[in-house]
Amino acid sequence: MTFTAQILTLYPDMFPGPLAMSLAGRALGDGKWSCTPVQIRDFATDKHKSVDDTPAGGGAGMVLRADIIANLVDFAEQQHPDVPILAMTPRGKPITQRRIRELASGPGVTILRPF
Fold this sequence. Notes:
6 strands; 3 helices; Alpha/beta knot; four-stranded parallel β-sheet; about 25% strand; two-stranded antiparallel ribbon
């Protein structure tokens, strides 16, 4: 069984990046796990491939558009329906070594990493 890491990101060229080095890189080369980056902009619907917009309640900054993220997550679930989806957000629950062990014993993981 090959562990599959599907990474949903605006910067797919960053992957596998450092994950291709040392023991993780050797395991990647041996086919023990795979890294599949998915470009978030591929799910944009306008000609500029924009994925963010101003916050609904106003304020500074930009937020990712919910419709695009929904389509992206639907696609990810179709590709790997039996793996958990982890969203890398400041408000998320910290990941622990115990959780990493649980994930490593499964078929893979989908990571939503918008930055």
